[in-house]
Each structure stands twice: as C-alpha cells, then as structure tokens.
Specification:
single chain, about 230 residues, alpha/beta, Heat Shock Protein 90, Rossmann fold, 5-stranded parallel beta sheet, 4-stranded antiparallel beta sheet, 7 helices, 11 strands, about 25% strand, globular, phosphorelay sensor kinase activity
C-alpha cells in the first residue's frame, strides 16, 4: 500500500519535517526472528530464513541517499512488513522544461525487471514521481512477454531497465538478446550492484544503451533515462 503523510519535526524515525510517501510491503511468509532483524540489511548476510543476497542492502542505500528511511517488523510464522518513508517530490509541471525534440517524461513508458519485490516497488515509485509511466516484472520471460504485447499494440516501451542477476529466472543478458530479436531498436539499460561486472563496464558490446549502478539516485536515474530516450 502507499499513502502520503506529513512527518512532524519531533519523530522517532530520524526524519526531517515534511511531506513523505509511505510505502508498506507486507507478506504472510515464515517471518524472521529477532536475531536476524538487526542484520537483514547487511550485504550478503545469510541465515536459514533470509537466504543470501544484497537486495535489501541496496534498497536501504537507495532510501538513505534520498533522505528517507525503512523500518522492518516481523513475527516468526506470521510474516514480515517493510515500511518505507521517502520525501515526496512536489513537481510543478509548468516549470519542467523539455528541450526541443525531447520525448516528454509523461509520454515515456519504462519497463523494469528486478527479482527483488521491494526494489521494484521503490524504483516504480521513483519513476512515477519523475513523471514516467512505470511497469515492473520479476524475471526475463515476463519482461519479454509484456514487451512483445505492448509492441504488437503499437505502444512500445521507450526504455527497459534489466537487472543482470535474477535468481531462479532469466537474467538481464539473456533477456536483452531476446528483446533485440523482437525489436532491434529496443533501448535497454543494464542494471547491477556490481560495478566490475563485464557487461556494466562494456555495455555497448552487449547491445545495451547504458548502465545503471545500484543503489540508484533519482537525479542520476532521470539523467540517464533522458539521455537514452533522446539518442
């Protein structure tokens, strides 16, 4: 769920006073014990319940870089709830100037593929606040299907963001190969938290239009999207 809220000056969240978007993500899974909660945002922390991953660490970095915060509550056997607080971006559309020949943000459709639900939701919210139309999927086969569906309706995606590493599914590199078969003109960004990944450092050789390093910053995300949109 998502809602807008005003955070007062005196609060226990460590946030500045102002308008915030609050995202609440809840599951009915196995939950986590208290001993895991203090480590859940550590990169590659592994336990029997959380597994091994850097996704939550990336999410926390993204949120912190945008002056927000994330809280987690969990009960073993009942599930886990993540509550994300992000400063609201108050846009005055009359002051947003598009350069001549640019594709306006409000007309740009972006497809995001990432296997972390919380990253998909945060990135979708960031894109929406910037004025883009965001669609999200969790793995490559779904990305290919939805891309093809919109292309056949003559309403193609303007940009696709593909996470290179997808657990238990088709990753970014293979998905990219399939998208180029469907649409040789596809504009696709490679996304990863690994700065030394060979695709990130040499993305053009793999057919990508650009690369995004996690954690994302709103201004960097917007900048590279506009660059790719108007190539």
């Amino acid at each position: 769920s998502a809602k807008n809220s005003i955070i007062k000056e005196e609060n226990d969240l460590g946030l500045e006073q102002g308008n915030y978007v609050i995202l609440k993500i809840q599951d009915n899974g196995i939950g986590m014990p208290e001993s895991d909660l203090s480590h859940v945002f550590d990169p590659f922390y592994m336990s029997n319940m959380t597994g091994k991953d850097m996704g939550l660490a990336v999410v926390k970095d993204i949120i912190n870089q945008h002056n927000g915060t994330i809280r987690i509550d969990s009960i073993v056997g009942e599930g886990t709830t993540f509550t994300i607080y992000l400063p609201a971006i108050l846009l005055d559309s009359s002051k947003i100037k598009e350069k001549k020949g640019e594709i306006p943000r409000k007309h740009a459709k972006v497809l995001v593929m990432d296997d972390e639900d919380i990253i998909r939701r945060v990135l979708s919210k960031m894109l929406t606040q910037l004025g883009y139309e965001a669609h999200v999927v969790n793995e490559g086969i779904s990305a290919i299907k939805i891309y093809k569906k919109f292309l056949e309706k003559n309403d193609p995606f303007d940009v696709v963001i593909l996470d290179l590493t997808i657990r238990g599914g088709m990753g970014g590199a293979e998905t990219m190969e399939n998208l180029l078969i469907i649409d040789p003109k596809a504009k696709v960004l490679a996304s990863s938290g690994y700065t030394t990944d060979k695709i990130i450092t040499n993305y053009e050789s793999y057919g990508f239009s650009g690369a995004l390093i996690k954690p994302y910053r709103v201004n960097e995300l917007d900048k590279i999207l506009l660059e790719v949109l108007n190539k």
